[in-house]
Specification:
about 230 residues; alpha/beta; Rossmann fold; 2 domains; four-stranded parallel β-sheet; two-stranded antiparallel ribbon; 8 helices; 6 strands
């Protein structure tokens, strides 16, 4: 009875549409689980994701679980995960993505998941790294090992908002550092982040990981802008 009263007073809300959830629903309502735009993993190349990286870096795969557009439910979902402290929501959706990865036999080629790190000031403000929450969720379904201690973000001089890919890349060129190269050597690394817009963040991080000895690098974003 007490649980029912709490639910009436403080209803759980869908992370995408913000409507109250039914007692049987967690994090996302049934309608949003069905309707959120998912382009599909392991798309045949070339595709709208691969063109962001083709000719710029020798990557293996690039994935996006959701299709992002301004003002959409996906944007609201990402905002909840990134800025509203919804780390459990991030892990939940990461696990959903991981379940789709697990159903594809190519998934077994990934040796290690590495989330894109936040630079220290933002981590202190938020108390968590949303990309690490997503990586943890993927790990829970796939059992691919993950490690958020190998790649460090030393800082960032200015906001990336409004910058094109070239400007973003120049800003990010020296902000990533591999702290321990040994676990990366000879491995196929799946780099994970919450969003993909121009791809500059993935490129800057991937170059450092490749230089540390990784044999292959693939990219996965929870949501990507087409």
């Amino acid at each position: 009875m007490f649980k029912l009263i709490l639910q009436l007073l403080y209803p759980k809300r869908c992370g995408a549409c913000d409507l109250p959830l039914l007692e049987s629903e967690n994090f996302l309502c049934t309608a949003c689980r069905i309707e959120l735009p998912k382009p599909g993993l392991f798309l045949k190349r070339p595709n709208w994701l691969s063109v962001k990286f083709d000719g710029l870096f020798p990557f293996s795969d690039v994935h996006a679980f959701f299709l992002f557009s301004p003002g959409s439910k996906v944007q609201h979902l990402m905002h909840q995960i990134k800025y509203k402290g919804q780390r459990d929501l991030g892990t939940f959706v990461g696990a959903w993505c991981g379940a789709h990865l697990k159903n594809n036999i190519q998934m077994i080629s990934y040796d290690l998941i590495v989330p894109i790190p936040l630079f220290p000031k933002k981590y202190q403000e938020r108390g968590y790294n949303q990309a690490a929450c997503i990586a943890q969720g993927i790990h829970e379904k796939t059992q691919i090992p993950w490690n958020d201690k190998l790649l460090h973000r030393t800082g960032q001089s200015k906001s990336l908002v409004g910058q094109n890919r070239v400007s973003r890349y120049e800003t990010l060129t020296d902000v990533f550092k591999v702290t321990n190269p040994e676990p990366l050597k000879g491995k196929h690394i799946l780099l994970v982040d919450d969003t993909l817009t121009t791809g500059a963040t993935f490129l800057a991080a991937a170059e450092k990981i490749k230089a540390a000895g990784a044999s292959e690098i693939s990219f996965l974003a929870l949501a990507a802008l087409k």
